[in-house]
């Protein structure tokens, strides 16, 4: 009986390892409103000095690090302002940063992220923007880029600055 239990446990562990390896290789990117796991693509090796090329993308993918060692990826809105890249986390029904979304909590715990823009991957860090002199023009830029969506109130929009990895 002990031998049967041992083989069952080993079989389960092997199946989990194979499944995770397959997911890691093929990725499991977010789709529609569903989150995903690993992002796949070609890793950019040169630093980006001007993020204005992201103006051509409605949404980009963001991968964060979870406390349980599995990545968590989502689609996010973004806007470039003065060559910098900003990400949006909006709370239409109120709420405070970062209590409502797991990717926000992940960023607070570990600001290192991976972005997927087109087919390219960018390893970056993000930081919360509290400076009103930056938040207001970025808020307006986001409104211009996405005129079709209902803008959240300024107070319920959290803006994150994308920076080079630390």
CATH architecture identity: Roll
- Strand line-up in the sheet with most strands: 2-3-4-7-6-5
CATH superfamily: Electron Transport, Fmn-binding Protein, Chain A
Return residue spans where pLDDT drops below 50 for at least 5 consecutive residues: none
Summing up helix and strand content along with how strands pair, one would put the structural category as alpha+beta
Biggest β-sheet, characterized?
6 strands, antiparallel, barrel
Oligomer: single chain
Rounded Rg: 19 Å
Report the CATH C-level class: Mainly Beta
Whole-number count of domains: 1
Q: In sequence order, what are the helices and strands, one letter per element?
A: HEEEEHEEHE
For the record, give the distance between the C-alpha atoms at the N and C termini, rounded to a whole number.
52 Å
Ordered list of secondary-structure elements with their pairings:
Elements: H1 2-26, E1 42-43, E2 59-65, E3 71-81, E4 84-90, H2 102-109, E5 112-117, E6 120-128, H3 132-145, E7 157-163
Parallel strand pairs: 1-6
Antiparallel strand pairs: 2-3, 2-5, 3-4, 4-7, 5-6, 6-7
Which tags fit this structure?
166 residues; alpha+beta; Pnp Oxidase, Chain A; 6-stranded antiparallel β-barrel; 3 helices
């Amino acid at each position: 009986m002990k031998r049967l239990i041992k083989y069952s446990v080993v079989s389960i562990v092997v199946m989990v390892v194979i499944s995770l390896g397959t997911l890691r290789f093929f990725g499991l990117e977010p789709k529609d409103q569903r989150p995903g796991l690993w992002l796949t693509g070609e890793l950019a090796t040169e630093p980006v000095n001007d993020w204005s090329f992201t103006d051509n993308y409605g949404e980009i993918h963001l991968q964060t690090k979870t406390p349980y060692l599995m990545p968590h990826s989502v689609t996010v809105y973004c806007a470039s302002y003065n060559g910098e890249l900003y990400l949006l986390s909006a709370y239409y029904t109120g709420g405070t940063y970062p209590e409502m979304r797991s990717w926000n909590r992940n960023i607070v715990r570990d600001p290192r992220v991976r972005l997927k823009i087109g087919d390219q991957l960018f390893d970056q860090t993000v930081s919360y923007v509290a400076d009103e002199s930056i938040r207001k023009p970025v808020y307006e830029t986001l409104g211009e880029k996405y005129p079709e969506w209902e803008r959240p109130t300024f107070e319920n929009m959290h803006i994150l600055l994308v920076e080079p990895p630390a």
